[in-house]
Design a protein that fits this description.
The chain is of the alpha/beta class. It contains 16 helices and 18 strands. The structure holds aspartic acid and magnesium ion (MG). Magnesium ion binds next to loops.
Length: about 450
């Protein structure tokens, strides 16, 4: 049995947290593969640092080095520290060389290379902490493991197929010998050999990719919260922790609201039916949330209600657009050039409407202006909207669900600006004005999650 265990930034962010995480790893009786994020704050530090190059390179190196040595020296004794410093100096030399190398700065993946440095050092400290605790462990970078990545800078995707054959060759033999590989999260390597990151928070995704490649029996994401919640506790204080849900529900929730998991974490494990547990490394005795492929009948209608705020609808009007799908294609192609996220699309005879983040509106309008004016008759933007995402298993096959949900929306006196139902059978998403959104969420949660009442509003 193999468990892939991923530790987030706060779980490796201080000597105490590292010690606790090392203990959790030592307690796991299955064979294990460990994946870690950078120590908390380090990736932000590197993102800011990358903007101050080349002038600040000495300061960046000095501060980065000090932060990691401080933490390691609180965990390791004299001899262990000497061992650690040998590996540390090698990796630091590579980092220093990178910042001095003017040709590297011209690579489109330069920022990826810099921002992925944090993981190379957090994993080194964790590996040495495990050795200090008596385990056999080896620190491996994504380069060492052959985690294959493709796509645009700072938003890569893993090539699961290529990664699997490399991991079998480079990582599996360690596991077979009882050695714990401690692997860098957050990035993979392009075919040209350059680091490419998977987007902020991407170490969860790395761990899922590694679990997929290893054919693991379980993926554990160790973080600093107890698991997925039925609603944001800042909106509804008596939110309940979700003990169990299926992959589709978790994917929708991770995508639309809850910040517990990187939204792309589900797919690599779902493909191989590998269950995923979200656990709190600060409270390891808590059961967390388990996510798997089983669909069990349940009493309550909704599992969770998520909210995504600060959205806008851009409506594009053009006569009989419905009869000109090529026009819709052109519009989407233009919007896609900016790599923005489109949260929902809806069409009518003469309008196509897109739901996007407020921050993306300006650049989308600029793109749309480059389309032939004959195609578009008018563009309207409505801002300050929020998307409510009601998540529950098999919503579509239950009769009357939408009627119930929209009755609750009416109770909150909210006008529905856009609806997306049917695209997934585990979620019903709709857009309301920001000013009404939290009331809608409260009412829906109280009525339909966990069998509560709508008192207390
Ligand atoms: N360290 C990276 C970040 O902060 C990746 C991660 O945390 O998963 O975005
Ligand atoms: Mg992080």
């Amino acid at each position: 049995m193999i468990t892939v265990m991923k530790f987030g930034g706060t779980s490796v962010g201080t000597p105490e947290a590292l010690q606790r995480s090392a203990g959790i790893i030592m307690n796991e009786s299955n064979s294990k593969v460990v994946v870690a994020s950078a120590m908390s704050g380090i990736t932000n530090f590197l993102v800011n640092g990358a903007e101050r190059l080349p002038e600040s390179r000495h300061d960046i190196i000095a501060e980065f080095e000090k932060k990691h040595i401080d933490v390691a020296s609180q965990l390791l004794n004299g001899e262990q520290m000497d061992d650690f410093m040998k590996d540390f100096d090698q990796r630091m030399k590579r980092f220093r060389d990178l910042l001095e190398d003017e040709s590297a700065a011209k690579s489109p993946y330069y920022v990826d290379n810099i921002t992925s440095q944090g993981e190379r050092f957090s994993t080194l400290i964790l590996c040495h902490a495990l050795r200090a605790a008596g385990a056999k462990a080896v620190a491996l970078t994504s380069e060492d493991c052959g985690i294959s990545a493709e796509g645009s800078p700072q938003s890569g995707s893993a090539n699961l197929h290529k990664t699997e054959s490399m991991i079998m060759m480079k990582v599996k033999p360690y596991v077979d010998e009882g050695v714990i590989p401690v692997i860098t999260g957050f990035y993979g390597i392009t075919d040209g050999g350059l680091p490419l990151t998977f987007g902020r928070g991407g170490s969860d995704y790395s761990a899922a990719v590694i679990a997929n490649a290893m054919n693991a029996d379980l993926l554990e994401i160790w973080t600093d919260v107890d698991g997925f919640m039925s609603v944001d506790p800042r909106i509804v204080p008596d939110a309940i922790k979700i003990d169990e849900m299926n992959f589709s529900e978790a994917a929708e929730l991770a995508y639309f609201g809850a910040k517990v998991l990187h939204p792309r974490t589900i797919e690599p494990v779902r493909k191989k039916h590998i269950p995923l547990k979200v656990k709190n490394s600060f409270k390891p005795e808590e059961p967390g949330t388990i996510i798997h492929h089983l669909r069990k009948p349940r009493g309550d209608m909704l599992r969770s209600v998520a909210l995504k705020t600060d959205l806008s609808i851009i409506s594009i009007g053009s006569a009989e657009i419905a009869f000109h799908p090529e026009m819709v294609a052109n519009i989407i192609e233009k919007i896609a050039e900016n790599e923005v996220v489109i949260y929902s699309i809806s069409t009518s005879l003469s309008t196509v409407a897109f739901l996007v983040h407020n921050n993306d509106v300006k650049s989308i309008l600029a793109k749309l202006n480059t389309l032939g004016s004959g195609d578009i008759e008018r563009i309207e933007v409505k801002g300050d909207l929020a998307l409510v995402c009601a998540v529950g298993d098999n919503l579509l096959s239950k009769c009357g669900v939408s009627a119930e949900i929209f009755t609750a929306v009416k109770e909150a006196s909210a006008n529905v600006e856009m609806i997306s139902e049917g695209a997934s059978d585990v979620s019903l998403n709709f857009v309301v004005p920001m000013s009404r959104a939290t009331d809608v969420v409260k009412i829906l949660h109280n009525k339909y999650v966990g069998g509560g009442t709508d008192e207390g509003l």
